[in-house]
Amino acid sequence: MEKKNRVPRFHIEKRASLPWHISLLIRLLSILAAFVVCALLTMIITGVKPGDFLSTMVYGSFGTPRKMWITAQNVAVLLCISLAVTPSFLMKFWNEGADGQILMGCLASSACMIKLADKLPNGLLIPVMLILSVAAGAVWGIIPAFFKAQFNTNETLFTLMLNYIATQIVAYFIVRWEVPKGSGQIGIINQSSEIGWFPQIFGNKYVLSILAAVFMTVLIYSYIRFSKHGYELTVVGESTRTARYIGINVKRVIIRTMALSGALAGLVGFLLVSGINHTLTATITGGQGFTAVMVSWLAQFNPIAMIATSFLIIFLERGAIEISSAFTLNQSFSSILTGIILFFLIGSEFFVSYRIRRSANSEAGKEKK
Amino acid sequence: MSEKTIAVKMRDVSKSFGPVMANDKVWLDIYRGEILALLGENGSGKTTLMNILSGIYCPDEGHIYINDEEVNIRSPKEAFEYGIGMIHQHYKLVEVLSAAENIILGVKQPGKLDIGEVCKKTRKLCEEYGFELDPTQKVYDMSVSQKQTVEILKALYRGADILILDEPTAVLTPQETEKLFAILRNMRDSGKAIVIITHKMNEVEELSDRVAILRQGRFVGDMPTHMTNAQEMTNMLVGHPVTLSIDRPDPVDPRPRIEIKGLTVRNEEGVLKLDDVSFTANSGEILGIAGISGSGQKELLEAIAGLQPTESGSITYIDDDGTREELIGKDPLTIANLGVTLSFVPEDRLGMGLVGNMDISSNMMLRSFRSGKSAFLNRKDPRRLAERVVEELEVVTPSIGTPVRKLSGGNIQKILVGREISSAPKVLLTAYAVRGLDTNSSYTIYDLINKQKQSGVAVVYVGEDLDVLLELSDRILVLCDGKVSGIVDGRKAEKNKIGLMMTKIGGEG
Fold this sequence. Notes:
Chain A is mainly alpha-helical. In chain A, about 70% of the residues lie in helices and about 5% in strands.
């Protein structure tokens, strides 16, 4: 028995709850730690000094006014997509299909720009594009919701597969509408006439997406916090049994919420085509539909916190790209850095929920020996 | 008691969960050849203390001595090595395996597994203590009481001589309880140390040799059972004197309110859960429903509430003015829109009645959030209701903004019942309204139910504690395997008769 009497030095314990500022501090510290590790790693591998590392990182996002505007726009777009997937996530509908929904929105917008350019005045064309993009995104959201509600299909797989279908549909239309023939791409649509281009606000092409993000943040925040619909979808997310018990029509809520998520993604599609890129490619989303999943989760589905998390992700991305180009490193190096930082950030959640304590009995245990 | 040898000594054992001290410098002695009843209200730290002893939790401070030797128990496996076996409230068995296979699961032994040998050893244990069990029977074929037997045998097989049972009788019929007690006495007489955690005073008096009482994480005291009584123990538990009888006011102007005819229900797997059930629930009366758990109680209440698809039969709601509404085929919202105010306190509080992650105020809103034309929520009225319920029912909570899952079972139930009766219902359905609640909270709930009855509500009370059913109900309907085994007068019925009716239609033979 004697030798069994070893005492564990530490044990892990669940925390009751932390005041918000402590948990925020833990997260910030983890980001800091991640930067230190990244800087050290970069130094060991490439000999770049930690100071240079950090300043290059910041330069990537804020180095020039243009860089700052692009950062702001990227943050805004990512934020919009994250907000779009948030209602479905709150309902615990694991919607991995934002990419596809955005693509369908992009397709609808581009189709209008190409086919209706000489039929409608710009003032009418843009609203039509907006409505059709939103509708296209909504339809792409409703399809998996319908099957989930009716047959309880797995929404993760379903939305994921719909992304591929959307990509293929877009690829098909790109070939049909390609300019010039045989090039396999569309190029800038209506470059000379600028028909279907969303007018610049304040003469600045970046402001539109920022305004869109502000609008969507307010919309989603009030929808999930104050509206009856938001309350219903939260109850469905927490427990469908409770929802049925109080007479919520679960199927209707699933379809309605996914219609909203899809519609907002479609709106982002409109933003990308009409406001930013003025073209259609099969990779126009750049996989941000998936990045948005992470942004939404990291913010724990809180629209306000999402401003910070989407900024963090964009800052990392742009900083890491800047570092790999400034020090002529392989592009994959930026992925490694982003990976390290996310690892720390997600790992910090452990310390938010648990703490490690020294075992109280360890002294007594030592005496025994 | 001096001739008894001490098995376990716990000294100054403390354990906290965040700011909550679940155990605060607790002392506890467990002797061999003795049955110790560990008493305490919900949240008094009984289960935490026993979980420390069985290696599930690690104490923050304190010392544990087994056979006068200080030990550190780091895992349930180590607990077994010290001869400590715990039988939890929720059994941890593999359904598709046989009893013997479950018993041997996780036991490390050299050589080939000889299941025949395991069966033989199990049978020997059964003989020794008086269990009735076929070691080759599959667990999914077993009754609750048989599963419990397997759990106890699992501990004995591993050589446990300090047995801890967490509320072992909660799911047993009176007859099964008797059998279990006989076995526990046999084990005691063979020198094992036995600890039972329970809420039921009559069981403590009947079975235990000594009681130890915890209150709010602290050790209040222990004494030989024959030197105390239920009233004194309850006072010690609660910390102040309480009365221990349930009122039963006479029914108020009973008139048929819910009429059920030939109700038949199959569950999703097609298993018959209710078979041709017919009865009437009257206004101003409490109709108790007794039965072994899983006899169709859940399906019955859910069918009335519009949550359970039915196969045949009718459920008719009769209003004060005699208008009749058929409830079958309608969902809860349609039923509510008909003006039928039906309140339902379901068995699964956090999975169905409430949303655990939402605060008290948002949970109050569950029933009423649709009211008003606005697309936005009215949060003021629910908040007022939450404040009222918290105050009137003495809910212990840091604030009405606290997520309900963080509250104790009794407080959660008060919130659920408080919301359900706030709508001035005509029918109140309750399933296991006091399950897991301590004495004090239970009596609060009984009072609330009685008040509803007196204001003319038709109450359907599904219960598991026959003593309570007999004290509270005006009539008792006994379910047996989905059929009505009989309806008896609550004032005249006998406990044993009902126990028999629970296992056999009509209770004959």
